[in-house]
């Protein structure tokens, strides 16, 4: 890429802005065309004083242009032979890379003039071929004048451009950031190559101009038929230095048949399908205006947002004959957010087929909803697990350990089954317990199962127990299943508290010199061999020092 092309590219890139309804100011440019008459063409334009401008001529294969001349305001004629004498460059350019296509999409002749003086410039040349017009584009990448074009309504309640409905077109004109009111704007609305309406606007506060000297130029248009249109805006005026300039911008838009649109009012419908007092569905029905189509489908997507920014989405495909725009959010999904409060409809869009007809933001806030008002499962696990040792009648041993947990159920009376797998904390299997058929009342229920002493005694060790796996299931079709792992862990149990723990590391002492560790529970031990009658001695009292070490035992014959 030579130095001229690189210079042009950098200038265009610095000034480039995508032209859209978002009204982003862009550097001015002029689109002209020279009509070929008797093999010659010409056009003219005005330019303020600036660093440079760039002229490009698009060239097609069957049309040749030659003898191009740029006539200065002073009358000086510049051509390819003497261009270097006037800080001017002529170049035939063929775009090869995506970056070069920013300069021109086609083969072009490019003229760059530096140190531009203000005034009227003329372009002349010769042409042969099938074309009747030579397209000419003049760009002013260093100009302080900027223009922004907006077609159609803006804001959250904007309506699509439709047949029979008036819509605005607005041009904002600035000179070095200052609103420029010293211009005249011509708006031409073109359909299928024919100008169907032309409006002249000035910035003087009269007629359709709402406020004088704010740099705004307005026009209003009513499409009579559907389809593609183009609005071409030509602006002539003087800049803040009193120099004449001109601008031309254009934008295409599509007019559709009149369509339905939502107004902003919403009806909240709360649906309790199973009559259990909890909301199964939140249905939002949007108030509409305008006609529904008689065939086809509408598509919408709605975003609900919590006060902390969490978002949930729902969409719908709606037959046009329903004559309603609505969306449904599932209660269980809303409950899963763990949120109590109001929701904002932070985003809404509506399509008819593949055509976007409305896009709205932050236009409605719902009623306040408690998190517990939404639909829930018939069975909820609450936890609150307990391990309770149950002593034998004589109080000498632990006969079993009762394990219990709480659940919350909705039906007034329903049957469930459950199973609990118990292991040691080291994952040694103890047993599986449960009940395949229990009846629960509505509300909170405590479920209890027992671990027999024999199941603990067979471990022959001191250990804590844990619920490794808990599964609970309804005996009715369609209910939910609870499945949880590593649910809860008990306290440490001493093996010698259980009948049958005779060979464990911490088993009941039976001989002189046997040692055991107490867990704080009253314990029964055999006396030494000189206890001829075999009575048991009961340790009924213990004392510890400040470090928790047992220092005194009180025993008596049972």
Tell me briefly what this model is.
The chain has 558 residues and is mainly beta. The chain is built from three helices and 35 strands.
Secondary structure layout:
Layout (H helix, E strand, L loop, with lengths): L2 H13 L10 E2 L1 E7 L4 E8 L2 E9 L4 E9 L5 E2 L9 E6 L14 E9 L2 E11 L3 E7 L5 E7 L15 E9 L2 E2 L3 E9 L2 E9 L13 E6 L5 E12 L5 E12 L5 E11 L9 E9 L7 E9 L5 E9 L5 E6 H5 L8 E9 L2 E6 L3 E2 L13 E13 L6 E27 L4 E24 H5 L5 E12 L7 E4 L3 E5 L29 E4 L9 E9 L5 E8 L1
Antiparallel strand pairs: 1-11, 2-10, 3-9, 4-8, 4-10, 5-6, 5-9, 7-8, 11-12, 12-13, 12-16, 14-15, 14-17, 17-18, 19-20, 20-23, 21-22, 21-24, 24-25, 24-26, 27-28, 28-29, 28-30, 30-31, 30-32, 33-34, 34-35
What profile does the largest beta sheet have?
A: 6 strands, antiparallel
Helix and strand composition category = mainly beta
Spans with pLDDT under 50 lasting ≥5 residues?
A: 12-22, 526-536, 551-558
Shape: elongated
pLDDT averaged residue by residue: 84
Total number of strands: 35
What portion of residues is helical?
under 10%
Radius of gyration, whole Å: 44 Å
Q: Count the helices. How many?
A: 3
Separation, N- and C-terminal Cα atoms: 108 Å
What can you tell me about this protein's structure?
This protein is mainly beta and 558 residues long. Helix content is 4%, strand content 54%. The strands form eight sheets. Strands 27, 28, 29, 30, 31 and 32 form a six-stranded antiparallel beta sheet that branches. Strands 1, 11, 12, 13 and 16 form a five-stranded antiparallel beta sheet that branches. A five-stranded antiparallel beta sheet has the order 2-10-4-8-7, covered by helices on one side. A hairpin with a 5-residue loop joins strand 17 and strand 18. The radius of gyration is 44 Å and the shape is elongated. The termini are far apart. The C terminus is likely disordered.
């Amino acid at each position: 890429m030579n130095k001229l092309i690189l210079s042009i590219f950098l200038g265009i890139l610095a000034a480039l802005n995508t032209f859209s309804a978002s009204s982003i100011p862009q550097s001015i440019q002029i689109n002209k065309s020279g009509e070929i008459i008797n093999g010659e063409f010409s056009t003219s334009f005005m330019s303020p004083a600036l660093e440079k401008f760039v002229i490009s001529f698009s060239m097609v294969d069957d049309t040749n242009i030659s003898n191009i001349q740029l006539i200065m305001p002073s009358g000086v004629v510049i051509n390819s032979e003497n261009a270097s004498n006037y800080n001017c460059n002529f170049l035939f350019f063929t775009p090869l890379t995506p970056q070069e296509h920013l300069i021109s999409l086609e083969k072009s002749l490019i003229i760059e003039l530096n140190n531009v003086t203000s005034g009227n410039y003329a372009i002349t040349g010769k042409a042969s071929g099938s074309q009747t017009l030579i397209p000419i584009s003049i760009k002013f990448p260093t100009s302080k004048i900027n223009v922004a074009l907006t077609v159609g309504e803006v804001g959250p309640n904007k309506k699509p451009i439709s047949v029979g409905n008036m819509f605005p077109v607005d041009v904002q004109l600035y000179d070095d950031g200052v609103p420029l009111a010293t211009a005249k704007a011509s708006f031409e609305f073109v359909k299928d190559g024919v100008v169907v309406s032309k409006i002249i606007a000035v910035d003087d506060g009269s007629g359709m101009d709402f406020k004088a000297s704010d740099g705004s130029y307005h026009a209003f248009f009513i499409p009579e038929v559907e389809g593609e249109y183009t609005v071409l805006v030509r602006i002539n005026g003087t800049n803040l230095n009193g120099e004449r300039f001109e601008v031309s911008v254009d934008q295409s838009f599509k007019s559709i048949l009149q369509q339905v649109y939502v107004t902003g009012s919403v009806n909240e419908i709360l649906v309790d399908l199973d009559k259990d007092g909890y909301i199964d569905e939140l249905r939002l029905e949007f108030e509409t205006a305008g006609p529904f189509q008689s065939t086809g489908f509408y598509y919408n997507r709605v975003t609900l947002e919590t006060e902390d920014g969490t978002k949930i989405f729902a969409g719908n495909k709606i037959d046009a004959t329903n004559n309603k725009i609505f969306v449904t959010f599932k209660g269980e999904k809303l409950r899963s957010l763990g949120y109590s409060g109001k929701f904002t409809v932070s985003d809404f869009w509506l399509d008819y087929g593949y055509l976007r007809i409305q896009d709205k933001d932050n236009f409605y806030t719902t009623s306040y909803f408690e998190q517990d008002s939404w639909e829930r499962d018939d069975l909820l696990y609450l936890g609150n697990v307990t391990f309770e040792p149950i002593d034998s009648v004589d109080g000498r041993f632990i006969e079993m350990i009762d394990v219990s947990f709480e659940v919350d159920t909705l039906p007034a009376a329903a049957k469930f089954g459950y199973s609990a797998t118990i292991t040691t904390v080291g994952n040694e299997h103890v047993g599986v317990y449960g009940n395949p058929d229990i009846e629960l009342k509505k509300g909170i229920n405590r479920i209890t199962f027992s671990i027999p002493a024999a199941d603990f005694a067979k471990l022959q060790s001191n250990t804590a127990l844990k619920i490794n796996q808990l599964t609970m299931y309804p005996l009715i079709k369609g209910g939910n299943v609870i499945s949880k792992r590593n649910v809860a862990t008990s306290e440490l149990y001493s093996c010698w508290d259980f009948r049958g723990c005779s060979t464990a590391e911490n088993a009941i002492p039976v001989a002189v010199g046997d040692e055991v560790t107490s867990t704080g529970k009253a314990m029964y031990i055999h006396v030494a061999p000189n206890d001829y009658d075999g009575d048991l001695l009961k340790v009924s009292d213990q004392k510890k020092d400040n470090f928790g070490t047992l220092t005194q035992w009180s025993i008596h014959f049972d």
